[in-house]
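[stage:ingest] chain + small molecule (zinc ion)
[stage:ingest] validated
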Amino acid sequence: MMKRILLTTLLPLLLVLGCAKAPVTGRTQLIMLDPQQEQALGFQAEQEIFKTEKITKDPRFTVPVERVGMRLAKATGLNLDWKFYVIEKDTPNAFCLANGHVFVYTGLFKYVDNDAQLATVMGHEIGHAIAHHVAEKVSVNMLTGIATAVAVAAVNEHVKSNEERMLYDAALGIGSQVGVLLPYSRMQESEADHIGLILMAEACYDPREALKFWGKFSKLDRKGPQVPVYLRTHPLSAQRIEKLKQWMPQALEIYNHCQRKSPNHSIKIPRKRSSPLGMPVS
Ligand SMILES: [Zn+2]
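[stage:predict] done
[stage:export] tokens:
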């Protein structure tokens, strides 16, 4: 019975709901969350972040993050509730939630020399958000869960134990943890790179700075355990640089067009903005 209900009503419904297209790449996506559910996931994650992380108001970090973030946000053409926060932590990382709230770690500032390099990272993270990658992860999990539930139902149609119910719950559960904690797929990472590169060019930042930025990380790749967290959840820099080179002509065309209209917007950011302990150097 369970099997029939799932197959005849739930699955077709979800598949109809789930047709979306990613920006820039035009890839067809399966997204089964509506915008409200997606926002709720972002909001939930944000509450956790505010509880566990220290948000700094130090203008040496917040000013460039805001400056670059606003330009990138404008380039998306999306009217999200854009907000930019800096987390005081000595890790080179950043992320953007589904609600358009972007978080950059102070530790990233040891690796960026100018606004364009900051835009490389922030553009990538905003790329994940505007391509609904978290919702996509959750959707894939839902579908996998439904498939599991269908299979379980087929075998245990007559079993009505608590264990069975728990299994269904686990299989179908889409807690925020799942969506937020699961790493992005390689394909999503690559797509975020592509979107980020186009976004930074649209915002009039030189896209070639992305190659310089990832080039620095490429050297860190070889250092094994010392590889920063930001890289462990991201594809190896050498591979992503190859891809970025393929997209570069497209990005440069946008950038050159922008340059003809207005001057260079990339402002130099002094290096070593945080000490090894992650405390801003005064
Ligand atoms: Zn990423």
